[in-house]
Amino acid sequence: MSIEISHVSKRFGTFVALDDVSVSIPTGQLTALLGPSGGGKSTLLRIIAGLERADSGRVEIEGVDATNLPPQKRNVGFVFQHYAAFKHLTVRRNIAFGLEIRRRPKAEIRARVDELLALVHLEQFADRLPAQLSGGQRQRMALARALAVKPTVLLLDEPFGALDAKVRKELRDWLRRLHDEVHVTTVFVTHDQEEALEVADEIVVINEGRVEQVGSPDDLYDRPANDFVMRFLGPVTQLGDRLVRPHDLRITVGSAGPSDHAGVNGPASVTGRITRIVRVGFEVRVEVTTDDHVVTVTLPRSEFLELGLHTDAVVSVHQAAPARVAAGAA
Amino acid sequence: MADLSVQRGHYRRGPGAYALRLVVVAYLFLLVAWPLYLVGRNAFANGFDDLAAILTDPDAVHALNLTAQVALASVTINTVFGVGISLLVVRYRFPGKGVLNALLDLPLSVSPIVVGLALVLVYNGRTGWFGPALESIGLQVIFSGPGIVMATAFVALPLVIREVVPVLQEIGDEQEQAARSLGASAGQTFFRITLPAIKWGVIYGVVLCLARSLGEFGAVKVVSGNVLGSTRTATLMVEEKYLNFDRGGAYATAFLLALIAVAVIVSVTLIRPKDHR
């Protein structure tokens, strides 16, 4: 295991940012720390980097106890949400910074910086100042700067948070491909579940200072440990007393026969009236109102047309896949 | 400080704007420009005679020299401490920070003459708190160079801080954190990242501090003893000459002092890049 965090706690005044957190982050993988804002994920990342000091607990990086090491001794690369570009230095000097600090020979620095400029596709911008770059370019420069010193781990704090939606998506794909090339242990913080599911090998869900669940994107999506993870990872709706994904539901026209109302453990089925139909691109969202609640079902447009659904039609809704969690306080 | 030319042409200019501009120009003219111009004119009332007299009188040259040395020392001290205190105030949280912040403005609000008297109370050689102890190891503060430097530094202390603090707040500490995570020590981070980023704030603070130090009068008058050829600074000499009906010499010296101050401010304004705050 590359990063070993054991029993780490951190308070800011009376606010508990991290409450006895223990996580292992595997070597060579892309791990996402996912959770709502203020949940403590950035604090955990900053503690790994040494930019913040834990009140208690232990941080180990590649077998070395880093708990009391200052940031400059940890050999981590850190990428900030707002780039933290050195404004008075050119792109080239920005990337070279870590190497210049390490007093590497000039020729070596030049070669390494050229290599990184190519990696982040900024060759033609080498002599510009950060102010002359777009947000996406600045963030790629910041990434190259962090990678230049060949860090043991690369830490990214909401790296695409300040970018617009399109650039965000591009950079996300690009980061995934970059990681497949470079293979450095990478941890990135995000509050965007789509970003985590798409990019990460492993996801650590953090909420209110605690780790809710650790697992692969499939694990978390299909086998969430609790309601919070279920709700946070994707859309949910209520079917009877269960919390389910709206795209895991099937609609059949007409009311369900009594035989369909299976036992306590069997798949639930409810009957109701369609009260609202919303089309979002290739997807159709159908709201079915039953006696006591509203079930949302999403289905592909083709299926929707096949079934010939319309508002006020009486339909029954049942689950296509086995239920995941019983709805608690839902 | 603010670049007023940025918005040029983006708003309508009604009669109100012109009236306001007229008021401001008239105000500055009557309060600053015209009196200063008259000082210059009086300095050259006898051609270059008065100026030449000042520059050949050994006592006057000594006074100008002393002022230059005191200003240099006070600027150096205030720059080092000013940048240090600014970093402390902006980057760290500690108990009593609010009190410290208030204290930093004190030298601007307290009359310089009070500053002078306070220094005399603490450092005079006979009854002061530290004075006798310092004098016994051979360091005379009051009626001597160190006292003049202290009084000047005290009065000009907030100028560097007031320029540097807003710049530090504006740049934030992410660049510094990035430098640290890239392996830079605290010193390397300061000299390679922080200092270049606050460069113009520091330069502007130094200029204001220099101008203020050259012109300090009240505090220096109390602590210096005003001994001719020894602890008499240029500003004290101006007063002395004026009171002794040597109007020409007074105006010539005053003109020199004003000239240096105006020259540094104008030159910094000119070389300052336009896109910087």
Structure overview:
The complex is a heterodimer of chains A (330) and B (277). Chain A has 330 residues and is of the alpha+beta class. Chain A is built from 9 helices and 18 strands. Chain A has helices spanning 41-49, 91-101, 106-119, 135-148, 165-182, 193-199, 217-222, 227-233, 301-307, and strands at residues 3-12, 15-25, 30-34, 56-61, 64-65, 76-79, 153-157, 185-190, 202-207, 210-215, 237-239, 242-244, 249-253, 269-280, 283-289, 294-300, 314-319, 325-326. In chain A, strands 6-7-8-3-9-10 form a 6-stranded mixed sheet, with helices on both faces. Chain A is elongated, with a radius of gyration of 24 Å. Chain B is mainly alpha-helical and 277 residues long. Chain B has 2 domains: 1-43; 48-276, MetI-like fold (Orthogonal Bundle), CATH 1.10.3720.10. Helices cover 75% and strands 0% of the residues of chain B. The radius of gyration of chain B is 22 Å and the shape is globular. Chain B starts with 14 loop residues before the first helix and ends in a 6-residue tail after the last helix. Mean pLDDT of chain B is 86; it is low at 1-7.
How far the N terminus sits from the C terminus of chain A, by CA atoms, comes to: 37 Å
- Class derived from helix and strand content of chain A: alpha+beta
By secondary-structure content and strand pairing, the structural class of chain B works out as mainly alpha
The portion of residues forming beta strands of chain A comes to: 25-35%
CATH class of the largest domain in chain B: Mainly Alpha
Order of helices and strands of chain B: HHHHHHHHHHHH
Instruction: State the strand order across the main sheet of chain A.
Output: 6-7-8-3-9-10
| CATH architectural group of the largest domain in chain B | Orthogonal Bundle
Largest interface (CB within 8 Å) is between: A-B, 26 and 17 residues
The major beta sheet of chain A can be summarized as: 6 strands, mixed
Give the rounded overall mean pLDDT of chain A.
87
Query: Helix share of residues of chain B?
Result: over 70%
Number of beta-strand segments of chain A? 18
- Oligomeric form: heterodimer
Please indicate the count of domains of chain B: 2
CA(first)-CA(last) distance of chain B: 7 Å
